[in-house]
C-alpha cells in the first residue's frame, strides 16, 4: 500500500490500569515495523491520575526492537525539561538509533505541572525560544558559549552529536498563532493534535507554510503531522466504547470521540483519515488504545489499503 502520506503509529503510553511491561512493548514495536508503518510516535505528561509512561524510556525500547522505523515525539513538554539535558538525551538516542529521531515539542503542559518543576507559566514563550536555541547549539557546535536569560554556558561541549549534520528535525505542536508562526519560521514543521477537522488542519497548515516562505524557506521542506486515535473492527459501537474508555481517562470526560477519532469498519476509518491526507498531512499518526498487535495488523491490512 502506498499513499502520499507516511502512516505512523501513535504509541499507547497511558493506561488507567497497569501498563504493559517492556517485552510486550518490544513485540508491539517490532510488529509495527514488520507491518510497514513508517514511524512510531510518543506523547508526554508529567503528572496524571492514571499511568503515563515516560516517552524517552519507551523510545529507547523502540530503538532496540526496530532497525528502520522513524522514532518521534508528538509531543514532549519542552519548557518543563532542561534543554541541556534534552540535548544530551536526544543526541544520544539519535546516535544509537542511527539517526532516526524526530523531536516534536510544545510549550506544554497543564497548570499544575509548571510550579513543581520550577518553571513560570508567564515566561514560557521566552524560555521555550531560548531553550531551543541552546539545544540546537549543543547538537551542532563543538564548544558552546551562551549567556541568556535562563541558561548560561561557557565552552560547553556535549558528545555524541546527532547523526544528520549535527541536527535533529524539530516540529512544533499546538494551534495558537504564535505556534504556527514559529513552526514555519524557526522549526522544521508542525504537528496537529487529536482534535479538529480537516478544514481547520488545512487552514493552519497554509499558515505555517506561509510563515516558512516569508522566512526564506521552501514550504515543501516542512513536515506536517496529524494525530488521530483509531479502533477498527466490525462492531462499530464496541470500537467507540474502547476509544471512549481510553481517551476520556486521559483527556477527561468531555473528549469527543465521535468528532475526532476513526472507529468501526475499515471503510469508515479510512473515510475519517483520508481528508487529512488530502489536506496535505505528510505524516498521519494513528493511535490504537493498547499494544494489541492484532489491532495494528488490522489497521495495516484492512484500513491502509483504502487510503490514497
Q: Could you please describe the fold and organization of this structure?
A:
The chain has 308 residues and is α/β, with parallel strands linked by helices. It is built from ten helices and 14 strands. The chain has helices at 22-34, 55-65, 83-96, 124-140, 177-185, 198-214, 236-251, 257-260, 266-278, 293-303, and strands spanning 6-10, 14-15, 39-42, 51-52, 70-73, 76-77, 101-106, 144-147, 152-156, 170-173, 189-192, 223-232, 262-264, 283-287. Strands 1-3-5-7-10-11-12-14 form an eight-stranded parallel beta barrel, surrounded by eight helices. A two-stranded antiparallel sheet has the order 2-4. Helix 2 (55-65) runs parallel beside helix 3 and helix 9 (266-278) crosses helix 10 (293-303). The longest helix is centred in the middle third of the chain and has 17 residues, at 124-140. It starts with 5 loop residues before the first strand and ends in a 5-residue tail after the last helix. The model has no long low-confidence stretch (mean pLDDT 96).
Amino acid at each position: 500500500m502506498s499513499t502520499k502520506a507516511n502512516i505512523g503509529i501513535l504509541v499507547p503510553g497511558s493506561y488507567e490500569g497497569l501498563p504493559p511491561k517492556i517485552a510486550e512493548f518490544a513485540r508491539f514495536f517490532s510488529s509495527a515495523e514488520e507491518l510497514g508503518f513508517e514511524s512510531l510516535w510518543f506523547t508526554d505528561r508529567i503528572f496524571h491520575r492514571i499511568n503515563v509512561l515516560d516517552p524517552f524510556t519507551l523510545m529507547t525500547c523502540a530503538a532496540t526492537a526496530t532497525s528502520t522505523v522513524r522514532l518521534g515525539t508528538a509531543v514532549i513538554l519542552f519548557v518543563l525539561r532542561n534543554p541541556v539535558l534534552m540535548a544530551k538525551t536526544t543526541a544520544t538516542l539519535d546516535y544509537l538509533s542511527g539517526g532516526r529521531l524526530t523531536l516534536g515539542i510544545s510549550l506544554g503542559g497543564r497548570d499544575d505541572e509548571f510550579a513543581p518543576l520550577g518553571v513560570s507559566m508567564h515566561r514560557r514563550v521566552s524560555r521555550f525560544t531560548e531553550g531551543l536555541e541552546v539545544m540546537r547549539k549543543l547538537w551542532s557546535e563543538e564548544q558552546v558559549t551562551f549567556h541568556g536569560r535562563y541558561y548560561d554556558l561557557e565552552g560547553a561541549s556535549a558528545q555524541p552529536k546527532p547523526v544528520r549534520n549535527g541536527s535533529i528535525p524539530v516540529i512544533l505542536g499546538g494551534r495558537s498563532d504564535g505556534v504556527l508562526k514559529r513552526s514555519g519560521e524557526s522549526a522544521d514543521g508542525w504537528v496537529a493534535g487529536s482534535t479538529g477537522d480537516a478544514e481547520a488542519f488545512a487552514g493552519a497548515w497554509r499558515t505555517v507554510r506561509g510563515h516558512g516562505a516569508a522566512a526564506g524557506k521552501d514550504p515543501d521542506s516542512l513536515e506536517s503531522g496529524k494525530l488521530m486515535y483509531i479502533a477498527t473492527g466490525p462492531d462499530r459501537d464496541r470500537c467507540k466504547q474502547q476509544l471512549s474508555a481510553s481517551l476520556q481517562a486521559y483527556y477527561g470526560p468531555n473528549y469527543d470521540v465521535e468528532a475526532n477519532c476513526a472507529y468501526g469498519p475499515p471503510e469508515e476509518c479510512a473515510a475519517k483519515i483520508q481528508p487529512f491526507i488530502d489536506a496535505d498531512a505528510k505524516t498521519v499518526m494513528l493511535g490504537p488504545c493498547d499494544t494489541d498487535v492484532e489491532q495494528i495488523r488490522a489497521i495495516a491490512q484492512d484500513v491502509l489499503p483504502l487510503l490514497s
